Amino acid sequence: MTGFGSFGLSRGPYPQTRMRRLRRFEWSRRLVAQSQLSVADLIWPIFVHPDHGRQPIDSLPGVDRLGTDLVVDAAKRARDLGIPAIAVFPATPAELKTEMAEEATNPDNLVCQTVRKIKQAVGDDVGIICDVALDPYSIHGHDGIVRDGDVVNDETVEILGRQAVVQADAGCDIIAPSDMMDGRIGMIRQALETAQHTNVQIMSYAAKYASAFYGPFRDAVGSKGNLGGASKSTYQQTPSQSDEALHEVALDLAEGADSVMVKPGMPYLDIVQRVKETFGVPTFAYQVSGEYAMLSAAGQKGWLDRQSVAMESLLGFKRAGADGILTYFAPEAAQWLAES
Ligand code: PBG
């Protein structure tokens, strides 16, 4: 086995196979491309607040919380760009947060109001995804009910079922439980069926890891202060675990999930690939707030080229097998795709 000739008959001074031949021209690189990013792969997470106007989020440069006067514009922008769906996250006023997170099941809470408004304006041209979890509504910032320092499972799951129903009543198309309680998908499916929402989808945050990359999101919805330094490690997955993600996905599918999600994204592309290969179901990845913040901050400093790293990272999700990506770059990426 010496030199390039070892793969063929040629023992000449030149490589028998020249990998660079296919790379020489743009047309050729395009011709052999295996993965492609399209606007149909993008889901745009937006933050809403109950007042008017834009509120910048320091740790998410370029992303603002949108007031009630701006949400319809955002939905129309998504529609006009061809983005299939948006995910709505509320910044709940501190005075509405409680120990039991009652606001989560208020049929007139900020999320429900927003969903109604958006549906009225854009109808079924844009899908609406709503998170199911209690953290935007609880004074402790946890995704479930806390008793004696423990996030209790079954009591929480019952509330999540009701939260899902008020969101579906408001017009939400896809319920996305992000809480990581056991048995929530089954309970939510049951609650939706009972409430006649047979066509409302469930996109389960099936493999969601206890990650430090959620920091800027917690700033955006104002739950960081509530949570203090507490961790979510008793319900979100431990970052070292890989097989466990497959177990979670299997359970969520058995309980009725229509699609599954892996979260965070870039540090967990191995999980995206395993989930897609193992189950072959619609598999989404969430390029979370901390991932966006890193790329965005380095772009602002001139250390990285914003557009290039954003598009390269999104293509990476596709190469790993993701069917779509929740990303704060969505509107920009859609624009860049349209221009290219
Ligand atoms: C709430 C929720 C979180 C995210 C989505 N839904 C935060 C958390 O679990 O603490 C994070 C998204 C992001 O970081 O962009 N359960």
Structure description:
This protein has 340 residues and is an alpha/beta fold. The protein has one domain: TIM Barrel (Alpha-Beta Barrel), CATH 3.20.20. Helices cover 38% and strands 17% of the residues. It contains twelve helices and twelve strands. It has an eight-stranded parallel β-barrel with strand order 1-4-5-8-9-10-11-12, surrounded by nine helices. Strands 6-7 form a two-stranded antiparallel sheet. Helix 2 packs across helix 3 and helix 4 crosses helix 5. It is globular and about 75 Å long. The mean pLDDT is 96. Bound molecules: ligand PBG. Ligand PBG binds next to helix 6.
Class by SSE composition? alpha/beta
| Largest sheet: spatial strand order | 1-4-5-8-9-10-11-12
The average pLDDT score comes to 96
| Main β sheet profile | 8 strands, parallel, barrel
- Identify the CATH homologous superfamily: Aldolase class I
Could you say which overall geometry the principal axes of the C-alpha atoms support?
Answer: globular
> Treating each run of at least 4 consecutive H or I residues as one helix, how many helices?
12
**Head-to-tail CA distance between termini:** 44 Å
Q: What compounds are bound to the protein?
A: ligand PBG
- Calculate Rg over CA atoms: 22 Å
Strand content: 15-25%
Instruction: Give the helix level as a range of percent.
Output: 25-40%
Element order: H for helix, E for strand? HEEEHEHEEEHEHEHHHEHEHHEH
Name of the level-1 CATH class: Alpha Beta
**CATH second-level architecture:** Alpha-Beta Barrel
